Amino acid sequence: MQSLKEKYADYFKVGVSLNESTIISHKDIIKQHFNSATCDYAMKYGAICDIYGNYNFSNADKIYNFCSENNIAMRGHTLIWNYDIPADEFKLLSNKEAFERMEEHMKIMAKRYPSIYCWDVVNEAIIGNKCDLTRNSLWYDKFGSDYFDMFFSMASKTFGNIPLYYNEDEETHVKKVHKICETIKRSLDNGVRIDGLGLQCHINIYEPNVDDYKRALDEYSKLGINIQITEMDVSIYDYEKGRYQNPPANLIERQAQLYSDYFKMFRDYKEIIETVTLWAVADDATWLDNYPVKNRKDWPMLFDIDRNPKEAFYRILEF
Ligand code: GLA
Q1: Residue 276: phi, psi to the nearest 5?
Q2: What local confidence, expressed as pLDDT, does residue 90 receive?
Q3: DSSP of 133-174
Q4: What distance in angstroms lies between residue 169's CA and the mean position of ligand 1's atoms?
Q5: pLDDT for res 130
Q6: Cα separation of 169 and 124, whole Å?
Q7: Within its chain, how far is the Cα of 110 from the centroid?
Q8: How far apart are CA 210 and CA 265, in angstroms?
Q9: Which pLDDT does position 317 carry in this prediction?
């Protein structure tokens, strides 16, 4: 079987999200096909530190060590987000205390995981239809929209030359594309270092289509910073609609075509796309089984529930 990472060696790294279970259960696939990885949960602030001062690195360490031993580069995910923070009431802290805690947290992560090759500093700042920076309300309510530049500057001091990313979802909505670009430009104009934009790429077989994605990529390429596709999966559902016991063959075919079209497009943008990361190894362990509908099986990945390659896998190797 051809290996994804070898086939794409001249284009970009091929990444995958991992957790402490999949590095054991799916280790052969991971080792064979991927040369970049992201912890799906284990490096989030609240995952590593349940309450202030109480750090437990065990899961993150296991994944980090697995990647080091197998020559898989690691992305750091994530620092400033509205979710998965320590249980203490951040809201009750003074601005100074909140700032210092974050500074301490960044230093701890930088010291413990020095070989991480880029960090998602801010995750999901903009709400699609609102187009302002209030989505990260935890940080926005304290610092206003200044939080964005403030934490990138903090990360720049803490992580030295390691590339710093802003990671965002719903990245093709026209108004949102505009706001993402405006936000990054403003920060760059302010002298703040942002090295890359992460595009999550949680898509489904109905939308967004490749042309919409391409239009967005064209806008993002004008920013002059790197791009990574950070969390790709392709649901077979039109959001909440429908429920299947088994994946219908025609939808799996449509999914294969979509993967193929998207990877072709990514190859066309290889000058700016550094990594394309899939948000699970196989269909047997995907967050989409519980999102946006709880307990509804989905089949969004390149490998099936028995961890065999799907048509989508073969299709993205055909070029
Ligand atoms: C967002 C986050 C990811 C992950 C997914 C859901 O996209 O960036 O870390 O939590 O939601 O799995």
Answers
A1: -120, 115
A2: 78
A3: STTSHHHHHHHTTHHHHHHHHHHHHHHTTS-EEEEESSTT-H
A4: 9
A5: 78
A6: 6
A7: 19
A8: 8
A9: 98
Q: Is the CB of 230 under 6 A from ligand 1?
A: no
The residue from 124, 168, 171, 274 that is catalytic is: 124
The C-alpha atoms of residue 56 and residue 60 are separated, in whole angstroms, by 9
Nearest to 316 by CA among 38, 73, 33: 33
Report pLDDT digits (tens) over 133-159. Answer: 889 888 999 999 999 999 999 999 999
pLDDT (0 to 100) of residue 192: 98
Distance CA 177, CA 197 (A): 12
Reported as a single tens digit per residue, the pLDDT across 46-96 is 999 999 889 999 999 999 999 999 999 999 999 999 999 997 777 789 999
CA distances, 241 to each of 70, 153, 206, 296, 298 (Å): 40, 42, 12, 11, 12
Q: Give the rounded distance of the alpha carbon of 125 from its chain centre.
A: 14
231 among known catalytic residues: yes
Q: Which residue type sits at 20?
A: E
> Tokens 């309300």 correspond to what residue?
137
Distance in Å, CA 54 to ligand 1 centroid? 23
Q: What pLDDT is attached to residue 89?
A: 72
Report the 10 Å Cβ neighbour count for 295.
Answer: 7
Residues of the chain with pLDDT under 50: none
